[in-house]
């Protein structure tokens, strides 16, 4: 493969962002923190520790971080058997594979959560590799997840496109030197994605697939 299509997963290929919002909100609530859901939504896409720091600040009790993360994992885990793929997700990955792209997932998910997401997408035959949170020291918006995905694909940044749904994705991809494509299905406005580095923005994977010929993934 001489080119790589790198994909975020939550909110990009699988319709999980609002599940994350509700389960993080509940985890915070159980720990005595009042965090507005709209603030949680804007933080989705960050790794657990970064998300907690972003929402609670540096003055928080850091000893509580692991408990908050575990609570979110337990709450979110209740949905593992029914996570819904976004329209066209599997079809898009298969089409890109057929077109000669190495398809790599770059996600903060790992373990059972990553397994559930891959089952939802149902396109393992099209996926070349996966860069999970277990593989990097820093999550998005640091470029390391995207850079690791490129290493797995054996492709330079100049031959890659990164598709994601959050400003954290766009910033990570931009820092890694790849072209960035945004999707609106994670709930982040077009203007925010473009400001963070999106070269093009589509409604969801199905929309990107339908307009593939005129996209950065042509």
TrEMBL record:
Gene3D superfamilies found in the cross-reference section: HAD superfamily/HAD-like, Putative phosphatase, domain 2
InterPro entries: HAD-like_hydrolase_sf, HAD-like_sf, HAD-SF_hydro_IA, HAD_sf, PGP-like_dom2
Keyword 4Fe-4S: no
Keyword terms, alphabetized: Hydrolase
A GO term, aspect molecular function: hydrolase activity
Protein name listed in UniProt: HAD family hydrolase
Organism: Streptomyces lavenduligriseus
């Amino acid at each position: 493969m001489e080119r790589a299509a790198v994909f975020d997963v939550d909110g990009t290929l699988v319709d999980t962002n609002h599940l994350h919002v509700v389960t993080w909100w509940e985890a915070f609530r159980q720990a005595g923190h009042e965090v507005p859901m709209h603030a949680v939504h804007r933080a989705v896409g960050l790794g657990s520790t970064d998300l907690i720091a972003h929402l609670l600040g540096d003055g928080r009790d850091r000893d509580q971080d692991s408990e908050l993360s575990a609570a979110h994992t337990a709450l979110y885990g209740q949905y593992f058997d029914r996570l819904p793929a976004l329209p066209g997700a599997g079809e898009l990955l298969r089409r890109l594979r057929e077109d000669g792209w190495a398809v790599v997932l770059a996600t903060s998910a790992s373990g059972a959560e990553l397994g559930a997401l891959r089952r939802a997408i149902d396109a393992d035959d099209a996926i070349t590799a996966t860069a999970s949170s277990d593989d990097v020291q820093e999550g998005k918006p640091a470029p390391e997840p995207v850079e690791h995905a490129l290493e797995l694909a054996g492709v330079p940044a100049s031959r890659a496109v990164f598709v994601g749904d959050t400003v954290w994705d766009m910033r990570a991809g931009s820092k890694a030197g790849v072209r960035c494509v945004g999707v609106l299905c994670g709930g982040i406005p077009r203007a925010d994605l473009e400001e963070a580095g999106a070269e093009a923005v589509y409604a969801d994977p199905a929309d990107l697939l339908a307009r593939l010929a005129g996209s950065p993934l042509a």
